[in-house]
Amino acid sequence: MTRVLDPRALDIDAAAETAHIAARMTEIVGRELRRRGVVVGLSGGVDSSVCVALAVKAFGRDRVRVLLMPERESSAASVELGRKVAAQFGIDPIVQDVTAAVEGFGAYRIRDEAMREVIPGYGPGWKSKLVIAGGTQGGLNYFKLIARAPDGAAHEARIGPRPYLQIVAAQSYKQRSRKTVEYFHADCLNYAVIGTPNRLEYDQGFFVKNGDGSADVKPIAHLYKTQVYALARHFDLPREICEGRPTTDTYTLDQGQDEFYFALPYEKMDLALYALNNGFSAEDLAPAIGVDAERAALVYRDIRGKRSTTRPLHLRPQLIRPVPEVT
Amino acid sequence: MSAEGGETQTKVRQFITSNFYVPDPSALADEASLLDQGIIDSTGVLELIGFLEDSFGVKVEDAEMVPENLDSVARIVAFVGRKKGTL
Question: Sign (positive/negative) of CA torsion B15, B20, B26, B32?
């Protein structure tokens, strides 16, 4: 039997949800983790901005350390937006540029070496991004490297496993460098570190292990992206944040999250994930996201595939035999 | 299946069972879905393509990266055969 999937299923009572999250954060950080406050890395995107707002609600602004951690390839607008959000809550953020750290690891050079395996002329002044393809057209997911030369010429090539893994690994130095800075501050202050994934990112494994995936508490991991935007409006965050489209701000060409990783724009991904989680069939989902049932089934397959592929990212280190005294 | 097809099958099975740590290679049916069984994931697909291109001198086009060509030992062997014109 067909069930009607109502987009309003994702509506939340923002005030009640905020109160609940703030109360749980205080319990978790204060009593379970026994820390005195939290560190939040603020990117200027909606997720980390909402996390700052929730943290201030839970702990008060004096117990929230906000870090802005740009590197030479991140958008200048991100830092400005981050400053604006911090200022709204009366917080003076610490700006720690991580370019030197990322450079010190050789990350830019290592990445560009892999880029040249795919597009031989790639070098200084070029911009690039990885784009996902295949999965929702009934094919297998694969990645393309899209690059723009300094003269404006566009290049595109499918990327093989070795350079693909090397590019992603090199780029991940950015998230891991930032997390290192966050834990430095947390250690200095006896604070906990906030992780800022929303439910889509958390479920689908869209994070770097020991990078942005590392945290002591993840206050919005249960919230669909649509719901995070609802909280952003509730907190009256800057218009650019409430209306912004999610980007990765990791690659040098503008890259929407839906071209890098997710099959659909977030509103539809939210509905698809909600529908899958709540037992709706692909036929039920199809009209809600404006596709036919066959395509909806491919979206379900893609969600299940990513969930399964990225499961190891969620696992604690696995032991050979149990150590029952430590849980 | 031609002698060359048999050789392709041996090489493909060998690659899949060793590269993806299939616990009981003899239990892997030629028709079994590699995706459904969780044997290959998206990075695994890229590795598989690289293996096919390096080992058999074929070029896998974007439009050919579909389960119908790549989601079982039998399908991969048939696909390589079609690409090489040997089946």
Answer: negative
Average pLDDT for residues A17-32, to the nearest whole number? 98
Give the residue from A115, A131, A166 where a domain finishes: A166
Nearest-angstrom CA–CA distance, B9 and B5: 6
Q: What gap in Å lies between CA A151 and CA A200, rounded to an integer?
A: 37
Report if residue A40 sits inside a domain. no
pLDDT band at A260 (very low <50, low <70, confident <90, very high): low
Q: What is the CATH number of domain B3-84?
A: 1.10.1200.10
Reported pTM: 0.91
A158 touches chain B (CB under 8 A): yes
Q: What is the pLDDT of residues A72-86, one digit of tens each?
A: 999 888 999 999 999
| pLDDT for B5 | 77
Contacts of A300 in chain B (CB under 8 A): none
- Half-sphere exposure of residue A297: CA atoms within 13 angstroms, side-chain side: 6
Q: Are A240 and A81 in contact (CB under 8 A)?
A: yes
Number of domains in chain A: 2
Q: Which of A160, A305, A308 sits opposite B46 (nearest CB)?
A: A160
Note down the domain range covering A309.
264-313
